[in-house]
Amino acid sequence: MADVLVVAEVAEGKLKKTTHSAITFAQKAAATIGGTFSILVIGDGAGKAAAEAQGFGAAKILVVEDASLKNYLAERYAPTVAAIGKNYGVVVGTASAYGKDLLPRVAARLGAGYASDITEVIADGGALKYKRPMFAGNAFGIASISTPIQVVSVRQSAFAAAEPTGGQSPVETVAYAGPSKAAERVEFVSFDQVKSARPELTEARVVVSGGRALKEKFNQVLDPLADALGAAVGASRAACDAGYAPSDLQVGQTGKIVAPQLYFAIGISGAIQHLAGMKGSKVIVAINKDADAPIFQVADYGLVADLFTTVPELVKGIQAAKG
Ligand code: FAD
Description:
alpha/beta; 5-stranded parallel sheet
C-alpha cells in the first residue's frame, strides 16, 4: 500500500471543518502504512484554500481549479478525483453530504473497496482495518479492504479536528480531467444556503434538540435556550415531518450525526433512529414528562417534567447565572 490522499471540502475559499477530521485519519493511516499523505483541494476557491491546507504537514497539496467546477456536481468532480486517486493506496474524505455523494463514485471508478462512515481506523500490522457502525449504530463491524486502492469516508464526530502544525507543504497544480458522461444529463440549478447566526449543527459544542411534543411552539420554546447557550438547534424526525422544524435540522440515522459536548433532548422519546445520531454526545440532558421514555436510558441528566414550564425556567436560570 502506498500513500493517503485526503479529498478536501472547500467553501468560499476555505477548508470546511469536515476536512480536518479526514486529515486526522490520514495522519494515523499514513503512519501505520509507512507512507505520506497529500491533500487534494478541488473546486471554486481551491487555490485560496490550498494555502490553508499547507499547514497540516502533508507531503503536497494538489490543486484543481476550472471554470466548470464552480458549482459542485459529483459528475464533474469524480473523474478528476479518481484520476488523481489512482496514484494512492487510500483515498479519504468525510461522510458529509459532499463525501457521501462524491466518494462512492470515486470508488466505483477506481474499482476500489469502500468503507463508509468509519468511526475508527485500526492498525493491523502495516495494514488498516476500519470500525464502522451497522444497524443504526446498534452494532459495530470491522472492515478490511482487499482491493489495491481503498476508499474511506470518516464520521466527522469520531475524529478530532487536526490542528495546523505550521508547515508549508508544496503546492502542485493538476489539470481538470473533464466531466463524466453522466454530467451531460445533470444540470446545476441553484444552491440555496440557509444562513444562520447559530453554529453549524454538526460542529456545535452545544445542541438543543426538540421533538414532536413541542408542536407549533418549537422555535418559541427552543430558541431562547439555544440563544442563552450559544447552541445549535436540532430536531427529531417526527418534529421535522410534522413541519415544526426544517428537515436540515434532523438528527439521527437518516439525519445528521452530532457529538457535541452537551446535547439537550427536549420532548424527544429516544427512538433508536434518533439515538443513532446523538448518542456519541459527551453529556446528554433529557427533559420528558414520561419517566419511562427510552431517552432516559442514555441520558446523563434526566428531568421528568413538562417542557413548556421547565425550559423557560431553565432559560431564566441560565440568564441569571450569566448576570
Ligand atoms: P415521539 O416519539 O412522539 O415522542 C415525543 C416525546 O415527547 C414523548 O416521549 C413524550 O413523552 C414527550 N412529551 C410529550 N409532551 C411533553 C411535554 N409537554 N413535556 C415533556 N415531554 C413531553 N427519528 C429521528 O429523530 N431521526 C432520524 O434520523 C430518524 N430516522 C428514521 C429512519 C427510519 C427508517 C425510521 C423507520 C424511523 C426514523 N426516525 C428517526 C423516527 C423515529 O423512529 C421516531 O419516530 C422519532 O424519533 C420520534 O420523534 P419524537 O421523539 O420527537 O416523537
